[in-house]
Design brief:
Layout lengths: L1 E4 L14 H14 L4 E4 L12 H17 L4 E4 L3 H10 L3 E4 L9 H8 L3 E4 L17 H18 L7 E4 L8 H9 L1 H5 L6 E2 L5 H6 L13 H14 L3 E2 L4 H16 L1
Helix pairs in contact: 1-2, 2-3, 3-4, 9-10
Length: 263
């Protein structure tokens, strides 16, 4: 899953793809590099980011989605707003990727159920401006698994087909670096929930801190190789999909992991 943020303030590529033509070209380049689908988002979820109203989000994402669909690209919509999910799917997007797992907009789960599209529900404890204050866990893996199970049940109760439900542990969302590593290390417990699992580690802060030198985290531009390593390990562990900025490296990592497992 290639990341395409049409936002001015995303943590890695904010402001890079505000022009519709550049955004569509970047999406096409990710497909050429091996992306199976392009995840288009119009609201930053980096720590400290402020909410974006649905109308503003729609004005950002819909021209890009339409441009990609016209060129045959498989598109998912990254949104916490039911109205945006509905418009994107009605235009042709095939997956709704909701980092709030249906908690940010009470209408989301029922909307997705009516649309009949696959749904990615991420582990989430609060919006970006407060989420780092919510990273208190006694046992992060047990608590994330339990809270994801609650979101799974809420989705099913709303009418979403359990066969169309994907779960995401939400690396970096209300989590310290050690929490992210614990979740990756015990990936089998996420898979035991019985649904495909999406991993979104690309260029995140916990990788920058791992690669720090002299107490200075590795710059965003230097985190892709570490992202590729996570991709290889996640693929070998049974992840359904990885959400990444640098598609080519992770595509190679997936191939290595698949060959390793076949071997």
């Amino acid at each position: 899953m290639g990341v395409l943020n049409v936002t001015p303030d995303s943590f890695s590529d904010g402001g890079h793809w505000l022009d519709v033509h550049l955004a569509v070209a970047h999406g096409l380049a990710m497909v050429e590099a091996g992306a199976d689908l392009v995840d288009v988002g119009g609201e930053s979820t980096r720590p400290g980011a402020q909410r974006v109203a649905p109308d503003e989000e729609l004005s950002r994402v819909m021209p890009v989605i339409e441009g990609l669909l016209e060129r045959g690209v498989v598109v998912s919509i990254d949104t916490m707003w039911a109205a945006t999910a509905r418009a994107a799917v009605e235009a042709g997007a095939v997956i709704v990727n909701d980092v709030s797992g249906g908690l940010a907009d009470p209408a989301m789960l029922e909307t997705v159920a009516r649309l009949g599209t696959p749904y990615v529900a991420m582990h989430w404890r609060g919006h970006s401006d407060t989420m780092q204050e919510l990273s208190d866990y006694d046992d992060v893996v047990s608590e994330v698994v339990s809270e994801l199970a609650e979101r799974r049940q809420a989705a099913i109760d709303a009418g979403i087909d359990p066969r169309a439900l994907v779960l995401d542990p939400g690396l970096g969302f209300a989590k310290e670096p050690s929490h992210n590593w614990a979740l990756l290390r015990q990936f089998d417990r996420l898979l035991a929930l019985g649904h495909p699992v999406l991993v979104g580690a690309s260029r995140k802060r916990f990788l920058g801190e791992l690669l720090a030198e002299g107490g200075v985290p590795r710059a965003m531009s230097g985190r892709d190789v570490a992202t590729d390593a996570v991709t290889a390990l996640a693929a070998a562990a049974g992840a359904w999909c990885v959400r990444v900025h640098d598609v080519a490296g992770s595509r190679d990592a997936v191939r290595v992991a698949a060959a390793w497992l076949r071997g």
